[in-house]
Every structure is written in structure tokens, then in C-alpha cells.
Amino acid sequence: MEAADxxxxxxxxxxxxxxxxxxxxxxxxxxxxxxxxLPPRVTRHTMHDPFRLTGPTCLSFSGGSTSGYMLWxxxxxxxxxxxxxxxxxxFANTGLEHPKTLKFVDxxxxxxxxxxxxAIDWVEFRDDEAGHAVVTYETASREGEPFLALxxxxxxxxxxxxxxxxxxxxxxxxxxxxxxLGWCDENAEWDQFIGIRADEPRRVAKIRARGTxxxxxxxxxxxxxxxxxxxxxxxxxFWAKQPFQLELPRHKGRTLAGNCVxxxxxxxxxxxxxxxxxxxxxxxxxxxxxxxxxxxxxxLVETGFFDADGEPLLKEVIGLGARFRKDWPTYxxxxxxxxxxxxxxxxxxxxxxxGLVDAGxxxxxxxxxxxxxxxxxFCGD
Length: 381
Ligand code: SF4
Fold this sequence. Notes:
Strand content: 15-25%
Number of helices: 13
Bound molecules: iron/sulfur cluster
CATH topology of the largest domain: Rossmann fold
CATH class of the largest domain: Alpha Beta
């Protein structure tokens, strides 16, 4: 080990509680063949510093400000040697992220990780034997390719009931990357750092109750931001002072165009506002709905009427999984609607000014009806 690796990061401010013994004093991950002697939950919650690595850890970086801040705190709380030994930072790209999200991930990599000899793993779903690919900022998909490949494979669209896009495009793609790195052998266990804040109590409670990943009990879900009591104000304060940041508007702690830009779990008005701001966002979503409608088997449902023989008359309806939202118009109809609205009102933007500016001096915008709640999504902040 180089001497520099053993020292805390010199550029980083020490955090209260960082005078803990080195993480190997708490060996959560026992050598192969030996029993674990500290239960994961006890270790995590009795540690003074929830960002301290205690074994192999995958930090799930969504490309948002919150998980970016979690990454920063993790870098501060560990020596370079421990970071190199324990940490993998993964960003799973669906191909439908905003270009500024990709830029932010790349900036984070270049400013924070590369100088330490670390790097973000950019992973994408692939419908092949490996199940994933490792890409770079330059080669990352930008036209929805991983999402399209998944929908083609399933011949079915994810929806609020069956959200398989998160598990396939993000969680499993990351797991396959970890497995390729040798993490997932029989005895492997690891921590998963996810960017859930203390001011998101419903998400915190749900994940705490579960304890481990939905995909494997070997992965312990850790929410160091929630454990440290970090709320949205602390995240925003931090980014206001940084030389780079995610250059997308935020409203009430949410990045409106974060994750997949037109995610069907966002409030409908938010999706329509984003379409109005750039109609090209809708292209891939419309294609996925239209392609799936053409191929998915329709459902036959009773009409409530009967023929002359007394047999119930049936009608064909679009099968479950042929639309992202059965309670919304199609993405194509929504696009036509917002474009017509813009025409009718002399191209008035659907996004309106809040009167606030972000750290970069840009206006923070909001939809006229942004108080509608979206559906909780675990893809990130
Ligand atoms: S952001 Fe939405 S659409 Fe994208 S993977 Fe997550 S749940 Fe699916």
C-alpha cells in the first residue's frame, strides 16, 4: 500500500465522528468460511459515522444531487486505502436520462474519483448472456437503447404496478457488474449505499423494514444520509458551493428532469411540462407504447351485452402492459395536447417561474400544478 493511500483525503474536511478506529476493527465481512459475528444492522446503526465503509460497498449513484452528496460524504469519511479496498460506485444508465445528468456523472468522476485512482462504473442493461455492458460517458446510450431492448425482450411495458425497469435496468445491471467483479460468490455479502434522505420518511421506513435488497438477501440496504439526519437543505447548501453541479432545475428537493426524464411515476403534469419544454423527450416513449400495442395480445372483456343465443358479447381492449399508465392518455396524446395548448396560448410555457434562482443563477421553474404527488420511485433522487 502506498503511504498516501493510508492517510485520510487531505482535501476533504474531517467529519465529526471520523476519529473512529479503522474499518477493519469492525470486520463485518468475515473471511471466507468463517461465521459473521456482527449482524449488519447492528454494525451500521451503532457506528458513529454512517458513511464509514465496513466491508464491500456498492454506492448507487443515480446521477442526482442527493446521491452525489452521499458520494462526497463517503469520500470524506474513509481513507483512500479503504475506498480502494471496499468501494464501487455504480451509475446505471437507462438511455433515457437527461444529457445534463450524464454530464454531471462524468464531472463527478473527473473531479472526485479519478484523482484518487477510482472511477465510476457506468453500466447498462443488455439482452445478452452477460446481461450488462460497461460503458463510458462518451459511449453511453442516449436514445433509450437499454430501455428499448428490455421492452422488446419482455414484450410488455413497465407500469406503476409492475416496475420491472428499475430492477432490470438498474438493480440487476449493477449486480451483474458486481458479479463480474467477483463479488457475488457463495460467501459474498455487501452493503448498498442508496441516496435516501432523512426527510423522506416513507421511503426510509419501507427500506428499513425490508433490510436487504429485493433481489438478494446478500445485499444490505444502507441509507447513510438518513442515518446522518441529512435533509434537502443540507444537500442544496453543499452543491451551492461546488465548482460543478447538476444543471437541472429542482423543486421541493426533486429534480424535475431527473432519472428517466419522462418516467411514468412522475406526476402527469410534470411529464407534460417536460414534454412542452422539449418535445423530443417524448419520441422514445411514444415508440415504446406504439410498438408494444402492435405486438401485445389484446384482452377480451365482456361488454355486458348478449347475442341472440345468450352468449356474452366480448370486446378487445389493449392488454395490460401496453401502456405505461392506464389512467393517463398515451404519451402521443399527451404530446399532442401540450403542443396544442402551447399554440392556443401563444406558446406560453407550461413551466412557470418560481421567483427563485439556483446556485448557478438560473431561474428555478415549476409546473403550474406541481403539487401533485408522484409515485415513490427507488431509482434515485
Ligand atoms: S426512472 Fe422511472 S422509467 Fe426510469 S427506470 Fe426508474 S421507474 Fe423506470
